[in-house]
Amino acid sequence: MNATESPYAADLDAEERGWYDIAGLVRTCRAEERLEAGYYRDPDWSLRDLVGHLGTWLAEAASQFERLLAGTYEGHDVDIDGLNATFLAAMQGQSWDVTWTQANAARTRMRQAWALLPEPTDEAAWWIRKSAVDHYAEHRGRLAEWVEELTARREP
Hints:
This protein is an all-alpha fold. The chain has one domain (3-23, 50-141). Helix content is 68%, strand content 0%. The chain contains 6 helices and no strands. α2 packs across α3, α2 runs antiparallel to α5 (122-131) and α5 (122-131) runs parallel beside α6.
């Protein structure tokens, strides 16, 4: 089944628009700006940290979709703060290139597994919202503000 035949076609389209919106904002920044702390404080996050955060949640969603497909899914009762801390630690110190590649690979893997789900379920919908469409929207506003701050500091 391809993405246009998926029962999630509209959600897949929304995910794509959200991802490219995030990617477009990130790409307006220079390499050194992507590493500057300030997107979040306490802990300090850079754009690299944000992309790593999104990418690791996309990877987790791909794993959960694969569990749904295999019949081994155990539910979404997860410690979100604990996973956030684990994911941040896992990506700590990675270069921008590694982080960007991981996020894009995780997104591709997530979309492939997502499109294979035979029918919509509440559990799949929860992971779609948590890892992608709503997750992007959750970070989009602050991302736009931070990118504006970063680019406004540039020398003319």
